[in-house]
Design brief:
With 157 residues, this protein is α/β, with parallel strands linked by helices. It contains six helices and five strands, in the order βαβαβαβαβαα. The chain is globular and about 45 Å long.
Length: 157
């Protein structure tokens, strides 16, 4: 009798600055209720203590690079700052998304490994839907999508 290989539990890292803390904390709790993800909270720890989004985004990007995490979720006020910083790391393919379809396409077509969200634009419920879609969608790979991703990301999966 053949035994099935155990399914790998993916590790998801979450980080935010103070402006994104409440949404990040909500999404952490949302994912914590699921058994199919391991979570790593990479900061910040309060909405009351100002932090610099470049530090938070770089911490998560380094965790992708060192393979400490498989996927990341970054949150700041607009999502723009963390997206810019994360994409400076060649191991990161970060996508700033504002709806479920863009989260789906980021994974399916671009093999994104970091979802960037703006707390000023994304409600907790919408964030749940986007994170769910991002994490369950697989990269279509091959063909034009695989070729294009390899053009900008030699380390692509």
């Amino acid at each position: 009798m053949l035994s099935a290989e155990p399914k790998k539990i993916l590790t998801v890292g979450l980080a935010s600055d103070h402006a994104g803390y409440k949404l990040k904390a909500h999404l952490y709790e949302f994912l914590q209720a699921r058994a199919d993800f391991s979570l790593l909270d990479l900061g910040c720890s309060s909405a009351d203590q100002p932090t610099d989004y470049p530090d938070d985004a770089q911490r998560l990007a380094t965790s992708i690079e060192t393979k400490q995490i498989d996927f990341g979720i970054l949150v700041c006020g607009s999502g723009i700052g963390v997206n810019i910083v994360a994409n400076r790391n060649p191991s990161v393919r970060a996508a700033l998304c504002r709806d479920v379809l863009s989260a789906h396409l980021a994974r399916a077509k671009n093999n994104a490994n970091v979802l960037c969200l703006g707390a000023l634009f994304v409600t907790p419920y919408l964030g749940e839907l986007m994170v769910e879609e991002f994490l369950v969608t697989t990269f279509e790979g091959g063909g034009r999508h695989g070729r294009r991703v390899s053009m900008f990301s030699p380390q692509s999966d």
